Amino acid sequence: MSLNDVLKVLAADIDEVENLVRDIDEADWAKPTPAPGWSIADQVAHLTFIFRLAKTAAADPDTFKGIAAKATQNFDGAVNAALQQFNGFPPKELLARFRSEGDASVEALAAVPENSVVPWLVNPLPPTVLASAGIMELFGHGQDIADALGVHREPTDRLRPLVQFAVLTRDFGYLAHDLTPPAEPFRFELTAPTGEVWTYGPEDATEKITGPVHDFCLLVTRRRHRDDLALTATGQEAERWLGIAQAYRGPAGEGRKPGQFADPCCD
Questions:
Q1: Residue 174: Cβ within 10 Å count
Q2: In terms of domains, do 40 and 171 share one?
Q3: 87 with 175, same domain?
Q4: Average pLDDT of the residues in 29-50
Q5: Of the candidates 18, 40, 113, 254, which lies 20 to 30 Å from 141 by C-alpha distance?
Q6: pTM of this prediction?
Q7: Domain for residue 231, yes or no?
């Protein structure tokens, strides 16, 4: 997918998360989400922080490097400070800041040449990859918000950049568990909401993951337990991967428990 295509998805996903919370009561912003200790306001505050980072990285790399140096030394502290910074605003102002930072990040990434890189927390990233990481953040935290509100989100083919990002970052789950990633690539055969099968990796790979695209995205963002998803592994290494998969760096977090939610098609 081109940078322009991925940014269109990012912009649409920002719209979707905004629509989830735009008309909820002020008290609902304090509702707990499935992420332990995080309210709906915390989820929106975190996304606002991520978009401010992305905007700064794309538009002002020198300033970003100073921010990143502090965040790298204590990333959890930086995240907690960001939550305190943003979720202290009244809901309407927090939502306005989320919208503003989200739109600004899309605009800043659009101005970056597609064949260049943008500084990021560990390694510089192509703008398409950084935008895809933003889509991953919106999907995961948006799912937490939807779960807290009891809202069903209809899967769409906008999930493609997230799937591609998760395939690219296959090894993050191994690294989070201090495991050595296998050298051999996996084969992924995933069925999109439209029925099209998206394939990645060599056809003759001995390790293979198959199943619905939406379930795959819930797995790699750790928003559902693997036991509640219709994903199948072929091969011992692929089977192990289903238990540790994540499309983000750092600690895996608590994840979700088996049976914690209704079937993902209907939750």
A1: 18
A2: no
A3: no
A4: 95
A5: 113
A6: 0.93
A7: yes
